[in-house]
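Take a look at this chain, tokens included, and explain the fold to me:
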Amino acid sequence: MLIVAIGIVAGLGPNPAPANQLAVARRIDIEVRIGDRDSLPGTLTLPRGAGPFPVVVLVHGSGAHDRDETIGANRPFRDIAHGLAERGIAVLRYEKRTQRYPRLLSDDQLTIDRETTDDALLAIARLRQTRMIDHRRIFVLGHSQGGMLAPRIAGRAPDVAGVILLAAPARPLLDLLAEQQRRVGLLDDGVINDAEQVALRRLVEGARAIRAGLEPPASRLPMGLSARYWRSVDAVDPVAEAKAIRQPMLLLQGGRDLQVVSADWLRWQRAFVDTPRVTFAYHDTLNHLGMHERGPGSLHSYQVPGKVSAELIDDIALWIELLRGVHGH
């Protein structure tokens, strides 16, 4: 497989690479910058051909992620970018702001929008400047926390063609964190030990303080982030925001997911039952990263190298193609 890398310092020109160069490559990775001040480095992966191509913007889950959303031994965003490019769809992925500028993690003015939403909007704006991209077919794919925010992003960019939610929470994240802590504690030996009890109690007490409007130090709150940040997260109602937008949505979920579970999946289904613009795809053997996993599931699997399921990538590509037929683009 031939991968061509081309560096572009500032923005994308009308044609980032000659058509004949694209014709001999399976795909092409182009370095881009997202935003002007404190910009973020990213990669635009283009399929073979002259375009214009539909494009998917990838939005990270929680944590300070790189453009590949590297988790343990795995790089799910790179897998999705390469897989979709081989199916004729461009993908833009970029460094998360808190990964590129880690000082923000101690900034008590940090909010979920500053961390995630605003940069996704900048990424969409960057794509509108690119002739290689079909501007009528820009899609947003959010993973985990990014999926929770994808409807908000689409609401603020109403010309986005559709939204893809991969392992997206449907319930408040502060509640999920405590639930996840309890579940992971039980996975090891069926017992929540003393250290796990302490961690769980801190999560519950932190959530209570945040919702009471108190200002405990960030060191006592989840992930060491400020109360202001967590209040901005707690204000996100992903289901309500998804109902408020008009774009088509594709929801993807794995049956081996330990972090976003059936309670979230069922809430999404109940909210959009018989809603023609919403499509659901459930894969029994996929984990939180969209990778096949045997057995009941474990966080240790993140340390085992794997690849995002080809079937999941097919789901995304087929849905995008079907929308083209529906809208005549």
